[in-house]
Amino acid sequence: MSITIYGIKNCSTMKKAFDKLTALGLEYEFFDYKKQAINKSTLAHWVETVGIDKIMNSKGTTYRKLSDAQKAQIKQDVDAALDMMVAKPSMIKRPIVVSNNELIIGFDETAFEKLGM
């Protein structure tokens, strides 16, 4: 089984995710948004799979710092939202775990445990 976890290394939620995967004895690859550029097609696939609301981190500081006009634009235009997330990867929820064709968005202990089965 191939597992890739996407996020930002210094995020407290990411630490929980790393610790859980390690405790389950699962090997994984880490994709660091700060060091590697996420491509728009990957984000688009995730959005098509689970929806923009689950992928975009609208509670984070980066989103809150956007102007009202920018927020309105990305709420109306998914393509603009994807471009913004590519430019500002802190706007992508984390962690995102990809295992085979399954997506886990955020730290969900139960979903992580199912990966270990």
Task: Report on the architecture of this protein.
The chain is α+β, with helices and mostly antiparallel strands. It has helices at residues 12-23, 40-50, 52-55, 61-64, 68-76, 78-87, 109-115, and strands at 3-7, 29-32, 96-99, 102-105. A four-stranded mixed β-sheet has the order 2-1-3-4, sandwiched between helices. Strand 3 (96-99) and strand 4 form a beta hairpin. The termini are close together.
SS-based structural class?
A: alpha+beta
The CA-CA distance between the termini, in Å, is 11 Å
- Element order: H for helix, E for strand: EHEHHHHHEEH
Q: What composes the largest sheet?
A: 4 strands, mixed
Q: How would you write the strand order of the largest sheet?
A: 2-1-3-4
**Rounded to an integer, what's the Rg over CA atoms?**
14 Å
Instruction: List segments where confidence is low: pLDDT < 50 over at least 5 consecutive residues.
Output: none
How many DSSP H or I helices?
7
Global shape? elongated
Strand segment count: 4
**What proportion strand?**
5-15%
Mean pLDDT equals 93
Percent in helix: 40-55%
